[in-house]
Amino acid sequence: MKDLLEIRWHGRGGQGAKTAAQLLAESALDTGKFIQAFPEYGPERAGAPIRAYTRVSDREINIHSPVTNPDIVVVVDPTLLETVDVADGLDESGILIVNTTETVDSVRRKTKYKKGKVATCDATKISLETLGIPMPNTPMLGALLKIKAVVPIEALEKEVQKKFLKKIGEEKTQLNIKAIKRAFKETKTG
Amino acid sequence: MMTKKLIALTGDQAAAEAMRQIEPDVVAAYPITPQTEIVMNFSQFAADGRVKTEMIPVESEHSAMSACVGSAASGARTMTATSANGLALMWEIVYITASLRLPIVMPVVNRALSGPINIHCDHSDTMGARDSGWIQIYCENAQEVYENIIVAVKIAEHKKILLPVMVCQDGFITSHAVEGISIFPDDKVKKFIGEYTPEHSLLDVENPVTYGPLDLQDFYFEHKRQEAEAMKSALKTIPAVLAEFNKTFDKSHDLVEEYKLSDAEVAIVVLSSTAGTAKGVVDELRKKGVKAGLLKPKFFRPFPKARITKALSNLKAVAVLDRSDSFSGEGGPLFSEIKAALYESEKRPPVIDYIFGLGGRDIFPEDIKKVYKDLQEIKKTKKIKSPVNYLGIRE
């Protein structure tokens, strides 16, 4: 791994992309890495396209500007493929992970991202079936870890426990962990 | 490798955490984006009984600073926090605070002043208050925010200083980004800042004092002269306070930070978070054999002129990056002061200004590379084409 890993998240306000970016960073912090996670704040409203960023490094992170050449892009909302250039700045060594019901080939066509790795996961379905609500952010973390072991999945589970327990209680926390594990299994690449 | 356990906090949370450990007697504050999380988190600490602070939720920033003046004059350790238009609204009392020599510490989350209305980072708010008599510290990241707020209490309350302090961080960029922060033990922080024993207090009826009387032609001038002297004295005293902080917490704070500057030929001068981004660019250019360096003033008030002159006078070309415009037609406030500082120096490198990032416009490493490229050109030709430039703008 090069010493700085940069991830860009695309979602819509209210889907938890910011939370996902933070959860990943905080899990990495617990494994001894240096981290940074921040959202791009525009006009804040539910449904508006938003970006969030995670940086993970073995060394102190000095840079304080948005990620322009990400190693990994995670798309939390499938409809963004039509409206946002999600593959912008992603080179052939990059990874694009999308929450979608469509195939890898279809994602490649829509994003014009031909050379790098593409993975898909139906995170909305997973979250509806496990949590009963469309919150694709936590399953997309599972999908990400399947493709790139930024942190061991146990580290993420621990972090989810820590962050969610007080806010949403034991039952829903466990269901989030279940959704992460299921997404980890069901993510496809091509 | 890291030796200390780090916890994930935003710049705002780091500020609130420092305030929790300081546990001021009084906090009077009004929430404003992007400072809101400081007040929100600290209010939670107060509500949960984790601090014994008297928390005063006021109806405006003008009232916040007014309540702080009353509190500090009565001898209580007092803090508040604000941003942008909030700072603008408390303006009248901001000047009064410094004039009354009240050691209030105020985290400021830098945000563009309206208008047009904008909630994102630039330094127009605190740069506008640069002549208010407050000490100003600018922070690169959340760790510095945390540490500078702690040391600010000691600086403000020092018997030879007695001036209020603003501890500035970049709105959203620092205030809302999560980073790994190392937090000192509570007892160590409390021991470092010590119990507050005010020099003068309205509640000390044995030694009555007057705050804020009418002060006309006969004495106003002498009082202002003393205020100017306090700021000059602060410049001499602050290094000793920083040394004590460094010794206690194993840190290396200074009035300015020099990054790869000792053998540099070209350098950028910039405050706050952009200094971090610029460090990465310096590293990259160094690998290519370019003798690039960086100067990050941490204190802007008092202005560390001697340190800045010494650090810059041997360079071949210098660029100042200003995150605010003074609308003088001659560049930003940092540029004016850096140039003035170099005027009396025997060796004076050419200095150019780049105004950048107004209203939260992002600045990328590519922008900073362009500045170093311009500096290389000035070094070669010894000519400045344009002294004041705008970076990352459409025109």
Strand order of the largest sheet of chain B: 9-11-10-13-14-15
Spatial strand order of the main sheet of chain A? 2-3-1-4-5-6-7
Largest interface: A-B, 19 and 28 residues
Q: Termini separation of chain B (Å)?
A: 46 Å
CATH-derived topology of the largest domain in chain B: Rossmann fold
CATH class term of the largest domain in chain B:
Alpha Beta
In the CATH hierarchy, what is the architecture of chain A at level 2?
A: 3-Layer(aba) Sandwich
The residue ranges of chain A in which pLDDT falls below 50 over 5 or more consecutive positions are: none
Alpha-carbon distance between the termini of chain A? 22 Å
Total domain modules of chain A: 1
Biggest sheet character of chain A = 7 strands, mixed
Radius of gyration of chain B: 21 Å
**Class derived from helix and strand content of chain B:** alpha/beta
What multimeric state do the chains show? heterodimer
**Poorly predicted spans of chain B:** none
Describe the structure.
The complex is a heterodimer of chains A (190) and B (395). In chain A, 42% of the residues lie in helices and 21% in strands. Chain A has 190 residues and is α/β, with parallel strands linked by helices. Chain A has one domain: Pyruvate-ferredoxin oxidoreductase, PFOR, domain III (Pyruvate-ferredoxin Oxidoreductase, domain 3). A 7-stranded mixed β-sheet of chain A has the order 2-3-1-4-5-6-7, with helices on both faces. Chain A starts with a strand and ends with a strand. Chain B has 395 residues and is α/β, with parallel strands linked by helices. Chain B folds into 2 domains: 7-249, Thiamin diphosphate (ThDP)-binding fold, Pyr/PP domains (Rossmann fold, 3-Layer(aba) Sandwich); 256-391, Rossmann fold. In chain B, strand 10, helix 10 (273-287) and strand 11 form a beta-alpha-beta unit. The model of chain B has no long low-confidence stretch (mean pLDDT 97). The A-B interface holds A 22, 25-26, 29, 32, 34-39, 41, 61-66, 68 and B 1-2, 6-8, 119-120, 140-141, 170, 172-174, 176-180, 273-274, 276-277, 279-280, 362-365.
